[in-house]
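Structural prep section.
Before we set up the soaks we want a predicted structure of the protein with beta-D-galactopyranose in place, mainly to decide which crystallisation condition to try first. Input record follows.
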Amino acid sequence: MRVNRRMTATVATAAVLGLTLAACGGGDTGGDNGGEGGGEQVEVFTWWAAGSEKAGLDALVGEFETQHPDIEFVNGAVAGGAGSAAKDLLQTRLQAQDPPDTFQAHAGAELLDYINAGQIEDVSADYDTWGLKQAFPQGLIDNLTVDGKIYSVPANIHRANVVWSNTKVVKEAGITADPKTLEEFFAALDKVKAKGIAAPLAIGKDWTQLMLFESVLITDLGPEKFTGLWNGTTDWNDPLVTKAINDFKTLLTYTNTDRDALDWTDAEKLVMDGKAAYQLMGDWEAADLDAKKFSDYGWFTFPGNGKTFQWLADSFVLPKGAKNPEGTKCWLKTVGSAEGQKAFNTKKGSIPARSDAVPADYPKYQQSAMADWKKDKIVPSCAHGAACTLGQNNDILSALSQFSGSQDVAKLQSALGTAMKPS
Ligand code: GAL
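Run finished without errors. Recording the tokens verbatim:
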């Protein structure tokens, strides 16, 4: 067993005080136990490397260190929005049987990829030990469960279908109310354009375009038919999908032409700098704008989505072959704890996955999201793994990146149908 100085000191202190360092897991963890109470190091693999994402991770790590002072957190973060670089590197490491001790995975279809590939462990026994089955809403538990087994611990719920605005730019363009329909949105974008802002709707590369396209699909198909696109009950050849692609094409005419080279934070900067009025992005943007001390922002649900909450959830897993499975369980225990969720989510822009959070503890945006989560229609996100697998997501992104150049509506519609064809 490797021993580091920090652990030796903690174990020695515990011995002097006559304390026993409790193990974190409930069931058999298998593998080389990294020491009593998890000891040694835990490598946590995410794509939260900057801004509010890093602030959220840092806050969670702070809570982890309070709860488990004997374990050293090792930051395995790889920069790039939505895991654009991290996911490839993770696959390489999983193929090489060199997994991190834990990694970030989206609840839903994406998680299923890792489960089907036999890459992650069942942690249901720990759910019982830690009381998590009562802590999380049943619908979320269902999205984490396969054949009665639960494979990850969710850290949060994010909302994808939100438009963020620069309120000064919007006001100067004479827009007095947030657009409620696509037609009103086009009219608002025209008003901003008339003020000399060439690209009023800021956007970035592939996955950010998929987010915008999904929002348009929700508007044109409605929540039920939209959900059916991912579970096979709505045909991708539906004329409403053609309409949505055409509407998406129109929206792209209002966006920055360098879109394929930008990450979400670059597009966010266009809004902050007043070079654009609006950006569709997940609600990690709320916390990021706060962290960047930009206060002239507003938000509204994507026009035409009505009372629909498009969700995604970040969760953490125990990979098969992790070097320190007991330490990973301590990390998972913190992630699922009320204190861990509060520390993380107040900084991340998301709302806690646990049902026992107190809204007053959260910033204004999250308070509104918590209320919507309880009453809105819930639909899943493909861009962030709730609705589609990693393979389907890859195919859809390459179809969209071709469309960004070609603008060929029929070709995109057929490529989407192929990407989602049952195998
Ligand atoms: C999502 C992730 C969010 C946020 C976002 C932008 O996939 O679930 O937590 O980090 O990417 O990077």
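Observations: The first helix runs from residue 5 to 17.
Flagged for discussion at group meeting.
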